[in-house]
Amino acid sequence: PAGPAAAMRLASLLAALRPVLPLVLGLSLGCSLSLLRASWSQGGGEEQCPGAAGPPGARAGGARPEAADGRPGRGHEDFRPRIVPYYRDPNKPYKKVLRTRYIQTELGFHERLFVAVLTSKATLNTLAVAVNKTVAHHFPRLLYFTGLRSAKVPHGMVLVAHGDERPIWLMYETMHYIHQHFGADYDWFYIMQDDTYAQAEQVKALVTHLSINQDVYLGRAEEFIGGDEQARYCHGGFGYLISRSLLLKLHPHLDSCRNEILSVRPDEWLGRCIIDFLGISCVSQLQGQHYHTYELAKNAEPEKEEEEEFQAALAVHPVSDMTLMYRLHKHFSRIQLDRTYQEIQDLQMQIRNLTSLTPAGEGGLTWPVGINAPFLPKSRFEVISWDYFTEQHLFSCPDGSPKCELSGASKADVSEIIESALEQLNSRYQPLLRFSKRQLLNGYRRFDPTRGMEYTLDLLLEAVTQKGHSHVLAKRVSLVRPLSKVEIIPMPYVTEATRVQLVLPLTVQDLDFVANFLDMFAMNTLDTHDNALLTLLFIYHPYDAQRVSQVDVFAGVKAMVGELEKRYAEVKIPWISVKTEVPSQVKLMDIVSKKHPVDTLFFLASVWTEINMEFLNRCRMNTISNWQVFFPVHFQEFNPALVYRGEQAASSSTDFLRDGHFDRHSFAEACFYNSDYMTARTKLAADILDRDELLESMEVFDVFLHYSGLHLFRAVEPGLVQKYALRSCNPRLSEELYHRCVLSNLEGLASRSHLAMALFEQEQANST
């Protein structure tokens, strides 16, 4: 019996150890391999790999050589991160450190490409204009250099005149100017003449494939006349590329080149200067990249040029007139467009081939191929609605009306999409069938932010066969206008140090809210020493103005202002008194504008506005002189009596935007510069002549919208919160302004759910 008992105990032990047996075996195997690997590594201590060359400290795999102390070798210090220690001199007073606006500036990054165009007084208004219209908008920065400038510079061109038409002097001054103003900001410098057509996108693609760690002098290499057979200079007519490192090394020798080198051609002079002092010759091929050029024959026809050399040319020279420049641009744009379409087709074919290998299979293939799938809403509140339209009318209008005439950009959009649908149908069914439009039966469109504008068209078509038989049929087609590449729009530089001049119009109906406004202004601007001033605009009714010596309706406000000026000795809050029955926003702004300098940044506020530093900074950043004005959409809180109905309001700071809405009917707040307002106001005065009564139907927004070419930036502003208050709508204003005021009051009462609950409770109370 002892034998069976021992066997049972052994079996029970093995059963208990069976779950941990793989773990024990894994640990044992891992320890054994670790000991074995340690013995191997100790055995090859001082041996060098067979065939290894160079010093013992050299790294394998083509790594960059380093100095003996382990730091990067000379020439690589610009590409290795380094820590700059902070040191403060205790003997000097403390001064606030100003950080750069962009991290790119602080890290020392450079822009990629700068383009210089050499022109002359004779060709400035012809060839230079043609260059500006064809390729200038493709380059990030382009300047024109000339000896003598004409009386009027063409619009949209930045011109630098050196005062001398001598070619060598022009080249010398241009190189000196580029180094002085842009040498520290750009990696590559492309220099061309105004009789050169350059494919801008090809030039930008070229510099992205070149290393900036070399001295580059790239262009069409030409031999010197009677010079060294090995040396080459870059022909100026076909443009040439210079790296930043070469420009920095060349600059100290420019004066010597000007005095010692004699030449007739400026490009030959520059090439000789680079060769003599730097020993670098022009090349047409570098790092696997070719600089393809094409010399255009006299009376050439770009549309008939079929040579492969012409099709691949990066620069074409000489271009004799503006018309030829535009024809070249059209031809190369068509070539680039065909290449792009072919690349799209190739990518779509690859996507189709790879889709079958994905888990979703061919069912996961989206239409159009390569475009994001339509947005799938997770609830009914996320459903994107379709807008119905015909060829004459749109049934979803911006002003909220059910039907409006199709015009402007919407009409052009519909016409273009119908033409595109017919073109696609004919390209698919020809030559068997040829379609022509009879009528648009139904049209639907919607904007999907994940893919673009979607269209569904019901078309009444006439189909004609090859034998001439015709048939009328209705066909539904779907189209997508996809979102293209996102571009960053260049904007002028603005700072947060600009002084903001607040303008607050006040009427008798606003007296109950002035105290809160002044308290918030003092707490958020005066206590924080923000660079902001306040001007009050007292609007007297004619009846109150006659009794101002006996009873001043604004006496209480003036007393509050006096208290603020006593509390803050350095602050002065001026006020302006105006007598009118109809407080037109434009007329009031006319009075304020005349009393301030032209460079004043105005913030036109309302008495319900709670001023804070966050919004004032956005007002500064979003308002750009001679470029953009800012009309924020404030957040309006709902009526607490309807929203909470006796309950305690939510105190969480994260929920402060929950019980309210952004009031899109209000245009009372605005940020703009006085100079921009004066310019637009001058155009308005010339349009309305002496009909000042028209100003009563306008706001400052209308002035900028119709009489200025500035950008009108209107966006929701969460930093501009207003407490609920029932506005008094002046019936003396225009019908549109009065209607907007009433809508603002009605929509500001509460949300639909809150109003529904209030009605439900009221009906329950009435029923009982």
UniProtKB/TrEMBL annotation:
Q: How does it sit in the membrane?
A: Single-pass type II membrane protein
Q: What is its main location?
A: Golgi
Segments for region (Disordered): 45-84
Q: Which GO terms describe its molecular function?
A: glucuronosyl-N-acetylgalactosaminyl-proteoglycan 4-beta-N-acetylgalactosaminyltransferase activity; N-acetylgalactosaminyl-proteoglycan 3-beta-glucuronosyltransferase activity
Signal sequence span per UniProt?
1-22
Which Pfam families does the UniProt entry name for this protein? CHGN
EC supergroup of this enzyme: transferase
> Where does this protein reside within or beyond the cell?
Golgi apparatus, Golgi stack membrane
Query: Which keywords has UniProt assigned to this entry?
Result: Glycoprotein, Golgi apparatus, Membrane, Signal, Signal-anchor, Transferase, Transmembrane, Transmembrane helix
The terms describing its cellular component in GO are:
Golgi cisterna membrane
Q: Compositional bias (Low complexity) at which positions?
A: 47-65
Protein known as: Hexosyltransferase
Q: Which InterPro entries match?
A: Chond_GalNAc, CS_glycosyltransferase
Q: What Enzyme Commission number does this protein have?
A: 2.4.1.-
> Which organism is this protein's natural source?
Rostratula benghalensis
* Amino acid composition bias (Basic and acidic residues), ranges on this chain: 66-81
**Which protein family is it in?**
Belongs to the chondroitin N-acetylgalactosaminyltransferase family.
